[in-house]
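Give me structure tokens for this 158-residue protein.
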Amino acid sequence: MDRTLIDRFERGGPALRAAIQGLTEDDLRAKPGPGAWSIRELVIHLLDSDLVAHDRMRRIAAMEKPLLIGYDENAYVAKQPYDALDLDLVCEVFECSRRLMAQHLRALPDAAFAREGVHNERGIVTLLELLEGYVWHVEHHLGFARQKRERLGKPMSP
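Here you go.
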């Protein structure tokens, strides 16, 4: 198990906050592409996703092949009151949650990362596969945020 993956997972927290620095509320709500979501929606989606992810990872670490339930991310974006949420608080919760989950993952033995859960849509997944997927997920969406910021004329700092 390459434990530097946990470091990458944890660094997703500060990276998310950096993605919104210097943006106005109009910038955050704009939808300049790529994709249909605004930066605001993208950021809150990442928190929603991580809250589900952390439950899934902890369930796999603690239980024998637990059932992991999928969810419709587009329904979350469409039907949750994302416009009413404090984006600084969203980033704070995301960052703290990532830090806490990283601490949890570091305390697990390497063998725990081979433990499995059963996703109702994807089938068998290991703890390691989930960790890799959620590292990729943030990096993937931050790429969209970078592109959106460039289209707004407000590129991210390197």
